[in-house]
């Protein structure tokens, strides 16, 4: 591909050369017609006469005497994956400059430690299914319930403890620190579009998880998405018989992550982090019910309005077509 300021495209270069060689036009006339210099026309004509293409030649030199040896590059990558050290630490081990180490790591996409898995030291392999519904990720996020009056994150520890003790249906003995219990957010996120369906419940049993999946499949179907596979961790709810029976009835293939490898289910894990920052702890809620009531509105914003970097800074719904209320 020619550069941005090129006077002639490859097609016009060929035309210039053919006028000079095949039709016998004078080089000066061809140069005046195409408004280029005399040497430019002659160079194209000489290349055409020699049978060379009209595309730009590579500026890469034919020989690089000081090129880093493949053995050094291989050892640099191996040390990076094994030791997780930076260019300044790897350079003395390899006997090369830190800038050379950085160039090697950048060419191998290992210049950031985020590109290397902390647990195994292996490069992070990112993937994305080619159409909505091909795979959905499911998981549960556990968070503490909010007492009436607000939680300790916004009102402080002392007032937070008072609010917990004053919450109805809890013992009011000042020496007793009541346990408010937990909320469990069940989420189902589409691998391709990142569109998500979530519900809040008071437990994470197999029955609750299965009911959420059934409702999520129906919700996706209403938006033209047919769920084909579901990926979950190895929690008890997802290993239960009721879960597998429901998936069989829905025609969904069940897939599990490798044990102790939550990174495989990273899309829903990352969503739950966004959920915590954008909804669960985004502002001071005066009760748990107030927070749960705000979930639906935040999910609408996330799916239909919030830019997502994995979707080209467009909202997840932009990857779905002909969805009712898509642009509302």
Compact description:
The chain has 328 residues and is an alpha/beta fold. It is built from 14 helices and five strands.
Structure in words:
- The structure is a single chain.
- This protein is an alpha/beta fold and 328 residues long.
- The chain has three domains: 10-49; 70-115; 136-145 and 181-319, Ribonuclease H-like superfamily/Ribonuclease H (Nucleotidyltransferase, domain 5, 2-Layer Sandwich).
- Helices cover 43% and strands 10% of the residues.
- The chain has a five-stranded mixed β-sheet with strand order 3-2-1-4-5, with helices on both faces.
- β2 (182-190) and β3 (196-201) form a beta hairpin.
- α2 crosses α3, α5 crosses α6 and α9 (206-222) runs parallel beside α11 (241-250).
- The longest helix is centred in the middle third of the chain and has 17 residues, at 206-222.
- It is elongated and about 95 Å long.
- Residues 170-178 have low confidence and may be disordered.
CATH architecture of the largest domain: 2-Layer Sandwich
The strand order across the widest sheet is 3-2-1-4-5
How many helix segments?
Answer: 14
Secondary-structure class = alpha/beta
Secondary structure tally: strands: 5
Shape: elongated
Please, what is the average pLDDT?
A: 84
Supply the CATH class of the largest domain: Alpha Beta
Element order: H for helix, E for strand: HHHHHHEHHEEHEHHEHHH
**Percent in helix:** 40-55%
Radius of gyration: 31 Å
User: Can you summarize the main beta sheet?
Assistant: 5 strands, mixed
Protein name: IS481 family transposase
GO molecular function, one term: nucleic acid binding
InterPro entries: Homeodomain-like_sf, InsJ-like_HTH, Integrase_cat-core, IS481-like_transpos, RNaseH-like_sf, RNaseH_sf
GO biological process, one term: DNA integration
């Amino acid at each position: 591909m020619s550069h941005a300021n090129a006077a002639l495209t490859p097609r016009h270069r060929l035309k210039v050369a053919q006028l000079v060689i095949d039709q016998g036009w004078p080089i000066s006339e061809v140069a005046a017609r195409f408004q280029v210099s005399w040497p430019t026309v002659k160079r194209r004509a000489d290349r055409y006469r020699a049978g060379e293409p009209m595309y730009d030649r590579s500026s890469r030199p034919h020989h690089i005497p000081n090129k880093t040896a493949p053995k050094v590059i291989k050892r640099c990558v191996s040390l990076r994956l094994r030791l997780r050290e930076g260019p300044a630490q790897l350079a003395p081990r390899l006997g090369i400059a830190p800038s050379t180490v950085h160039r090697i790591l950048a060419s191998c996409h290992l210049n950031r430690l985020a590109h290397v898995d902390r647990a195994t030291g292996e490069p992070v392999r990112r993937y994305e299914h080619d159409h909505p519904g091909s795979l959905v990720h499911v998981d549960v996020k556990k968070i503490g319930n909010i007492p009436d009056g607000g939680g300790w994150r916004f009102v402080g520890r002392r007032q937070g403890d008072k609010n917990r003790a004053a919450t109805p249906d809890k013992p009011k003995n000042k020496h007793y620190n009541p346990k408010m219990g937990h909320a469990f957010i069940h989420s189902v996120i589409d691998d391709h579009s990142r569109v998500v369906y979530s519900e809040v419940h008071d437990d994470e049993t197999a029955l609750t998880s299965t009911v959420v999946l059934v409702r999520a499949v129906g919700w996706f179907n209403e938006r033209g998405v047919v769920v084909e596979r579901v990926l979950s961790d190895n929690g008890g709810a997802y290993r239960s018989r009721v879960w597998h029976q429901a998936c069989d009835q829905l025609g969904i293939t069940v897939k599990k992550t490798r044990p102790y490898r939550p990174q495989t289910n990273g899309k829903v894990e990352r969503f739950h982090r966004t959920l915590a920052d954008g909804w669960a702890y985004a502002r001071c809620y005066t009760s748990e019910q107030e927070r749960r009531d705000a979930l639906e509105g935040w999910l609408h914003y996330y799916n239909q309005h919030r830019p997502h970097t994995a979707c080209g800074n467009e909202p997840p719904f932009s990857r779905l077509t002909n969805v009712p209320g898509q642009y509302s």
